[in-house]
Structure formats: C-alpha cells, structure tokens
C-alpha cells in the first residue's frame, strides 16, 4: 500500500487484497479502510512531508539515549553526554557547510548541463539524491506514449513494464510547468525520475528556477539568516519565515538603541502605532499604494533643548589624538622586538665563544692524556716482558733439575 501513487491505484490494490484473502467481513480492516486518508501515502501526496512516514520519536530517542545513559547514570552525567552529542551534530553540520562552500561538486556526467546547474545550486547531500533520480530517469525509464501537442507523457520502466503502472507526466511549454502523478516534488521538493525522462525527451538543458527550492540550496542557511533584502517574491515557501526573521531582528535592534531614552521610547511607540494602523488599512485594501504616505515620515523626533557642554581637556595634556590600548601595545611590541633581536645576537655570540673555549680545552686535555699515558704504557709493557722472562727461566731451571735427578 505504501507504493501506491494515486487513490485509484490504492483502491485497486485494496480490493485485490480483500478478495484474495476473503476479508470482506473483517471488522478491523473495515475500520482501517474508513480512516485510509490518515495513513495511506496515496491520499497525502499534496502535503510537503519530505518522505517521512511517521515521527518515530521513540525510536530516535532510544537511538540517541541508548549509548549515553545507563541505569546508574545521574542527571548531570546524562546532560553532559547529551551536550557532547549535540556538539558533535553541530560540528558535523559546520563541516558539511564548509565543504559546500569551499569545494565544488564533481558530476558523474560532466557534459550534462542539468547536473552542472544543480551542482552549483544544491548542497552535497541533495545533489546526490538528485543525481540518483537523474540517472535512474535517463537510464531506467522509457516513454510509452506522447500526445500530439507534447503535453502528456506516459513514463514506464524500461524493464518489467507489465508489472508496473505507467506514470503520467504533464508538461506546459508556456510557463515550463511539469507535474507527475507520483508527486515527488510536492512531497519532497525534488523533481522525480519521470520528470527527468520527459525533460530529456524534450531536450531541455536547464531546470526551471521554480523547481530549485531555496531550502535545499547550499546557501540556504545564509539566505535565511542574512536578511530579507535581495530575495524575490515567491522564491520559496520559507520566504515568510525570512521576512519575520528579518523584521524581528530589525525591531530588536531599534528597541535596544531606544532603550533608556524616554523621548526615543515614546517616539518608537508612536511610530509603531501609526505603522500598525496603516498596515491594517493596506491589508483591508482601504488605501491605494500610490497615495500611501506613512504618517511616521511626517513625525519628527523631538529635539532636546539641552546641548552637550564643550569638551576641553585639562592642562598639561596634548590636544593630539589619544592612542588606544592596542596602538600602545603595538608600539611597545616594536621596541620589544628590537630588544629581543639584540639579545639574540649577544646570545649567539656568547654561545659561539663558549663553544670555542670548550673545544680548545678538550683538545689540550686530550693531548695531556696522551702524553701521560704513553710512558705508563711503555713501563707496563716492559714490566710484563720482565715477568714473562723470569717465569720462563724458572720453568727451565725446574726442568733441568728434574732431568738431573
């Protein structure tokens, strides 16, 4: 039932299931059929759901909390572990944003103008989804029927045509509108493979701009939080959020600047009241745009009668501009660098001198050692030779005595 793309297909599949299982009197299936619009995907193709069939909150919670909590964990330990996971999520998102902004996507088919267009627009993840749909549509789909005015196409699989129902794709050449019965663009904001096959059949080399949703672009975050100016009307369903975000931040900045000043606060409140009245009139279409003159423009801010006194510096202080902390620190750093260079030069010279003294001392010490050990070595050799001769003579005398006996 989840693969049904239309209500007719759902009804046919449901009837086949009931007849095959002889389930006409099944009470639970009857009640389930009455609420089919709440659970069948065939009845929810008009809503933007991104392909999510259920919230799965319990499964997601168990998946996240299973590795960070134990039966003996305290609330503090659980909170710290959860904070680490959130930090990793944000770091991964920042890494993905950095990759999207600093690297270019390499298309599988480098000569395809459509893939080049979406590679410059989509994020890396969405581009992989689109590329899969594009390759599946161009390589795995075929067109069975084309109307005379090329406004209706029947798209089917290249293989197993008997086991599947063809998808109907409508195309309007006047405004480049394309619509498929699978309604993947309505549910996910991404053109399906059937539409890709039709665009390839019509030799359209670029996707219309209205089918490139801002929410899937690589600059979606920047567009949502950078302000409302520069965005066209009707660019995306999130344009209302962009407007509210920009107005909220602008109003917060103005209120922060006016806070603490009674005259500024009163002026801001009066201007906001006038603006609210004018907006109500515009919404009710009681005012013509060409004749619309905002009352807040004629409202002038009250000028205070008090003026600031003349700023004069005390005696013994120069009228030159006072240097800030960083300028003073920078000036000191120049002297410090020169002093460090001088100290380094003296250190290198002193180190070289010490090295020379050490080498000369070790050379003299080695010469003295050689001169002292040479006589000792000679004396040792003579003494050992004398001992050997005496021992040899003693042995010979003993042998002579034995022979005489």
UniProtKB/TrEMBL annotation:
<dbReference type="Pfam" id="PF04434">
    <property type="entry name" value="SWIM"/>
</dbReference>
<keyword id="KW-0862">Zinc</keyword>
<keyword id="KW-0472">Membrane</keyword>
<keyword id="KW-0479">Metal-binding</keyword>
<keyword id="KW-0539">Nucleus</keyword>
<dbReference type="GO" id="GO:0008270">
    <property type="term" value="F:zinc ion binding"/>
</dbReference>
<feature type="domain" description="SWIM-type">
    <location>
        <begin position="167"/>
        <end position="203"/>
    </location>
</feature>
<dbReference type="InterPro" id="IPR006564">
    <property type="entry name" value="Znf_PMZ"/>
</dbReference>
<keyword id="KW-1133">Transmembrane helix</keyword>
<feature type="transmembrane region" description="Helical">
    <location>
        <begin position="364"/>
        <end position="387"/>
    </location>
</feature>
<dbReference type="InterPro" id="IPR007527">
    <property type="entry name" value="Znf_SWIM"/>
</dbReference>
<protein>
    <recommendedName>
        <fullName>Protein FAR1-RELATED SEQUENCE</fullName>
    </recommendedName>
</protein>
<dbReference type="InterPro" id="IPR031052">
    <property type="entry name" value="FHY3/FAR1"/>
</dbReference>
<comment type="function">
    <text>Putative transcription activator involved in regulating light control of development.</text>
</comment>
<comment type="similarity">
    <text>Belongs to the FHY3/FAR1 family.</text>
</comment>
<dbReference type="GO" id="GO:0005634">
    <property type="term" value="C:nucleus"/>
</dbReference>
<keyword id="KW-0812">Transmembrane</keyword>
<keyword id="KW-0863">Zinc-finger</keyword>
<dbReference type="GO" id="GO:0006355">
    <property type="term" value="P:regulation of DNA-templated transcription"/>
</dbReference>
